[in-house]
Amino acid sequence: MPSRNRLKIYVENSYYHVYNRGVAKQDIFLNTQDYKVFLKYLKEALTKPVVKKLLFNLRGRSFKATIRPIKNFQNEIVLIAFCLMQNHFHLLIKQNNKKSMEGFMRSVITRYASYFNKKYDRVGPVFQGRYKAILITKDEYILHLTRYIHLNPKEYIIDIKEAYSSYADYLGLRKTSWVYPDFILKFFKDPVIPELNKVNSYKHFVENYKKDSSQVLGKLTME
């Protein structure tokens, strides 16, 4: 049966829950290096590229060469929250241009699949088809989606800094230059969502809030 979120609606200046899992639900992160490589590819796609210039000699003559950086999406994609699990990943992004997400995801996933296949001497797809993307249209859903994402690795909540997610950035324990938690934290400074009036912090919302975010989100979560 086809995935319910395979058909994508691309809208500029809009928020999306983007996710995918390993083919046949197999693991896509087998060790610490794998997680770090995926995060490295995210960082390189979301930060201003460093143009490297090389000077080399050939048969007594000097030449200058410029290493062309990979396609960059710094001003087109905003990463608001993420979580990497053993066999899948979740991203909450805002795309500023209508077609930015497609190029961004293709770049990150293609690079990681190439790395993974080479490292583990395998061939074939790493991920279960194309990535899935769900358009999120309400502030309440965006808020609950970050909670849903950050609660994915429940066993890591005690050691937040070690979790491969953006939760530590939301709690002020880490500052990742290419993740933007302020898009969500602003709701707690000036609550415009009625249900937050009795919630005093994002940490309290994630770990102690009574509502089940999965039920609030319904079909906006992973299948």
UniProtKB/TrEMBL annotation:
Gene3D superfamilies: Transposase IS200-like (3.30.70.1290)
GO MF annotations, alphabetized: DNA binding; transposase activity
Start and end residues of each Transposase IS200-like domain: 11-152
Pfam families (UniProt xref): Y1_Tnp
Top-level division of the source organism's lineage: Bacteria
Gene Ontology terms describing biological process: DNA transposition
Cited SUPFAM superfamilies: Transposase IS200-like
Protein name: Transposase IS200-like domain-containing protein
Lineage summary: Bacteria, Candidatus Woeseibacteriota
